[in-house]
Design a protein that fits this description.
This protein has helices at about 15-20, 20-35, 35-45, 45-60, 75-105, 125-135, 145-155, 200-205, 215-230, 245-250, 295-310, and strands at about 65-70, 70-75, 110-115, 140-145, 160-165, 175-190, 210, 235-240, 260, 270-290. By secondary structure, it is α/β, with parallel strands linked by helices. Strand 1 (about 65-70) and strand 2 form a beta hairpin.
């Protein structure tokens, strides 16, 4: 069988893997321009390189793809059949590159975010709104939970970023503080303490408190115990199996007090009042795995840094 005869184009696996992307590019360029000379000029390579790669391609296929003449080249029957497959292969490569580049630019993709604080107002809604405007095609998934759950998910790469209270360094993770919020007591409007502009911890000694069984109930419980223990008091804290909204409604009917971050105070319900606790400030930080390479997550952190102008709180540690 000579090269000019038309064989089956079913190449074996060894032949297929030996065809390179440039073989296809040079072949399609020669078809579009009608000659090796014009194709080489368009590609910015030597004409001999185009001719050599086309001959390599023909050797791999076992058939001629061009009839050569002085004015240029013309497709053979084998070349016509191979052309649409070559174009399809190049199109798939270009689409794959474009898709990967879009994800790399965070034009697309998904970021899973663990949240601990309310996003009724404050830094987080500003961050999410800004990020959505800059990267509208990125899917943002918010997941509520307590810090220990979030950190475990971060280490297992089930979460990309978690926003939690404090500036604790977690092994295997990076931590960066972005904002702080005041701490407020939530109490009924008729409560005697509602007449005060600010509340001191000593004012809360002997008060009954409620926390939700859901996050961040346990953290609020521990926070109250720690602060009031410093005054030699052990607070009465009732755990309620209800959400944040129902907890605030329970405060309004006098079942107990609770505490909340500043962002929560945007949730205005009838019968409750918010009063700041003097000099109580909670820092909030982002935590993410050092092994996380999600471009969308990196873009989110970049936007957060721009909004917060924060300093990185990374502890010195050996890298694996």
């Amino acid at each position: 069988m000579t090269r000019e005869t038309y064989p089956s184009l079913r190449a074996n696996s060894t032949q297929v893997t030996s065809i390179e992307l440039r073989h296809l590019r040079y072949f399609v360029a020669a078809v579009e321009h009608g000659s090796f000379r014009k194709a080489s000029a368009a590609l910015g390579v030597q004409e001999s390189a185009v001719s050599r790669r086309i001959r390599d391609l023909e050797d791999h296929l076992g058939a001629s793809v061009f009839q050569r003449y002085n004015g240029g080249v013309q497709l053979t029957l084998a070349g016509e059949r191979f052309l649409h497959r070559a174009k399809r292969a190049l199109r798939h490569v270009h689409e794959g590159v474009g898709s990967a580049a879009a994800i790399g630019r965070s034009d697309e993709g998904r970021v899973k975010i663990g949240i601990f604080s309310s996003i009724a107002s404050g830094f987080l809604p500003t961050l999410f709104n800004t990020f959505a405007k800059l990267h509208p095609s990125v899917d943002v998934e918010l997941i509520e939970g307590n810090p220990s759950e979030h950190i475990a998910a971060i280490r297992q790469l089930r979460l990309d970023v978690a926003f939690i209270t404090g500036t604790t360094h977690w092994p295997g993770c990076d931590t960066e503080q972005f904002w702080s919020e005041r701490v407020f007591v939530v109490l009924p409007c008729e409560h005697p303490l509602s007449a005060k502009v600010q509340i001191d911890w000593i004012d809360l000694a002997g008060q009954k408190f409620m926390v939700s069984d859901a996050a961040p109930g346990q953290e609020i419980h521990d926070y109250l115990v720690q602060r009031l223990a410093e005054l030699g008091r052990h607070p009465e804290i009732r755990r309620q199996f209800i959400g944040r909204d129902s907890l605030l409604a329970s405060v309004s009917v006098g079942r107990g007090l609770t505490v909340a971050s500043e962002a929560t105070t945007a949730m205005q319900l009838p019968g409750i009042a918010y009063r700041p606790i003097r000099d109580e400030i909670l820092p909030f930080s982002a935590v993410w795995s050092t092994n996380n390479d999600n471009p969308a997550a990196r873009r989110l952190l970049s936007v957060a840094r721009t909004l917060a102008g924060s300093k990185t709180l990374r502890a010195s540690r050996p890298r694996s």
